[in-house]
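Batch job 17 of 40 flagged for manual review because the log was empty.
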Amino acid sequence: MAKSLITLTDISSDELLEIFNRIKKLKVKIKKRESIKILENKVVGLLFEKPSTRTRTSFEAAALRLGANTIYMPSSEMQLKRGEPIKDTARILGDYLDCLIARVYEHDDVVELAKYSSICVINGLSDLSHPTQVICDLFTVLEVKGKLKGLTMAYIGDGDNMCHSLMVGCAMVGMNINCACPKGYGPKPEIINEARKIGEKTGAKINVVDDPKAAARGANVFYTDVWVSMGDEASAQQRMKDFADYQINADLVKLGSKDASVMHCLPAHRGLEITDDVIEGPQSIVWQEGANKMYGAAGILDFLLGGK
């Protein structure tokens, strides 16, 4: 069975660093518009249950720039909508494709796609994890700061899939992370424990608190996500109240290091989880982070499909 990327723990810390190296090299070539045929004759499918701007476009563009062909498959236009079992779809797609990028509501679905398709499956977002986003995020921090180990990230907001993957990703590279989440919205205990076990080996400290200011003090990087993720719309009104104090704004950023950087996985709701002056300000690296989604996708595809 081909190697897949369902969560970050599917790769080792050394493999993560190798992906960073591939991203760095491919970014130079892609920006120069060099002809790259690493994935020539490969077919990459994108099975998406959720809307997407950056994840879909970045992987399609990256695959095309590496010489592959792509097929976009919204689940609403597939037999999945009529109740076909995922394992049946997976088996067939495994015969048609070389790689499948899946953006799903339930994490178990992407796990099942990998189990029954026998091809490389990449998690383009599930309710539990968003590994490709975090690979691109950490690569961006490495570009800006020149290192990862020993830095501290302050994550402010929902203990969601982004929070889960950031905790594990930071732990893998020896980067501390302070997660400030409202009570009742914290990350899953099993993910916290998983990240802390990794951190014991790399020196990373994984802290979960409910005080944004405590998380922010001395932070080198600030990170946030939307308060209402896709699938949480029914609780939107209550979430607006519960997250009101969990905003990255100028006062909170002042508690970090003088050269602290601000990140957001996008899309951003300005005036809610982040203020307009911060996301547009000099400490924001959000647009570099967003641009790196394509280069990151290229590095991930190269690592999983391109060989040595």
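Reviewer: the log was empty due to a logging misconfiguration, but the result itself is present. The mean pLDDT is 96. Unflagging and moving on to job 18.
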